[in-house]
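Reviewers of the previous submission asked for a worked example of the structure-prediction workflow described in the proposal, so we include one complete record here. The input consisted solely of the amino acid sequence. No template or homolog information was supplied to the procedure at any stage.
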Amino acid sequence: MTRPRISARISAISESATLAVDAKAKAMKAAGRPVIGFGAGEPDFPTPDYIVEAAVEACRNPRFHKYTPAGGLPELKQAIADKTLRDSGYQVDAAQVLVTNGGKQAVYEAFATLLDPGDEVLVVAPYWTTYPEAIKLAGGVQVDVVTDETTGYLASVEQLEAARTERTKALLFVSPSNPTGAVYSPEQVEAIGRWAAEHELWVVTDEIYEHLTYGDATFASIATVVPELGDRVVVLNGVAKTYAMTGWRVGWLIGPKDVVKAATNLQSHATSNVSNVAQAAALAAVSGDLSAVEKMREAFDRRRQTMVRMLNEIPGVLCPEPKGAFYAYPSVKELLGRDFGGRRPETSAQLAELILEEAEVALVPGEAFGTPGYFRLSYALGDEDLVEGVSRVAKFLGQVG
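From that input alone, the workflow returned the following structure tokens.
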């Protein structure tokens, strides 16, 4: 009997849909097609100069030519602790910080450290594509709490309680949200945090978009708002979105010391330390002010308003106003099954494929985020490309029969 070449555990992992869409768009563009991509969640701004200069200096420092502690440079861990207190009011010390190879590694290590096989994690859908795979790899069981445009993609305590069982160990809490841009008010954060504390659940909170909120929306860290959660909170974050540093691959995990020590042990065998040059750049980023992100936030806000207005002008498309991050998540359910030049897409995935082929615009379908019938569009791209891309989509969808 021939054994499978690939393990069942790894075979079960799905490719990152957002990266796959981005790769296909770039390949089509390289082939000469004028594709506009709304797929990847990546700021179109360069990393600020002072951060780049810090990396250049680090390259010249022989200290950074060698191994450093697997859990991160001591000065960076302290700076992350200081930044966390400054930005969210959550006080931790350096021993509670683990520097990781981007936010994705922090996500995986958090669940790998907390979960045993069969442990359930409540996940609000729509959700970022990496969460299910990280939970699955850790042996956990994802339990979806599905939201939609009628509530602004916000989950209620009642929904969470209805999904909770005796096997529920953790709640994954994300605000601002990827892919929807939903932001929970401080009052909503408090209610959910108190519910989690009452039932002695772990809360894994992804705060990567903490500085990207708009209008009257405000970021509130569940760890700060609900101190009674105590040592059952794990905070995930990184420099990618705030400082336009997606390619530098520096994230972090903050948690109780025993969790951080265990996750550090895992990382010591998986990757050792994060690149020292990237860590030096991250140190400059988190130690500096937030003027760079404020300029980006202003641009994102302008693009957000433009995109939402244009999408809502398309018949059959309904797009709630995102309050944070840099994504819009419109419903296209009314368009499914209709005729587009002789083709009738029955799913948002099929419709996205048709738009890519015919309008040369790359979108990520809602299937990737656990809720079919939607698209995710990133507005972290230039103003002209944004208007041109949405205009192409509007023109194509206007052909509906």
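DSSP finds 14 helices and twelve strands in the chain. We consider this example representative of the routine output the project will generate in years two and three.
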